Amino acid sequence: MIFGSADSGLQNGVLPFFINSFVITIPAVIFPIAIATMAAYCLAWVKFRGSDALFFFIFALQIVPIQMSLIPLLQLFTGGVHLGSVQIIPRLGIAGKFAGIWLPHTMFALPLAIYLLHNFISALPKDLMEAAYVDGASHFKVFRSIVLPLSVPAIAAFAIFQFLWVWNDLLVALSFSGGTQGIFPINAKLSTMVGAWGAHWEYLTAGAFITIAVPLVVFFALQRYFVRGLLAGSVK
What we know:
The chain is mostly helical. It is built from 10 helices and 2 strands; from the N terminus they run αααββααααααα.
């Protein structure tokens, strides 16, 4: 009944929304990891003036409530940024598309991702990094051949957090979907299953059971890295 037609509220089933959750979650996990890993390496090993201040500023962004940024981001996506009659940033036009959900999730995840990965990458053996530089390795070579393989525990730990956050998210998806039901995640579908009068709770519980199966698989697949990633950089 969950994947088939049950009544007027379940005409299309939840399978398309289940697929939408994967389409939303996988890029929303990959994008911040890719950006944060490079940023963390740069802040940890490519010293420049103001690098420490920039790191603390990025870390401080975690205190900004997500709810405060929803309306400004929606205005940016739909109308751009104006200073009086002058348009500073053109409208992005991605509200109501998957990209309009990926971008906010990536932005919200970056402060924590950079902080966690920076602590791990900065704790890598200094002698190892210096030996690579002496041998003529470029920053890209060091990052690709040394930093990434050694950072797998920290990356996996953050991937679990980000996957669970995005998969279980309803607020961001509804806010930036623009009412386009074709990109609604599974949680948006589950929220409509009960109906206005609280009927069909059996559909909600069955659908919720299906949605928790995927996070459980992800957690158990990466659990061996989880504790190591959480403790990364805490002790030197």
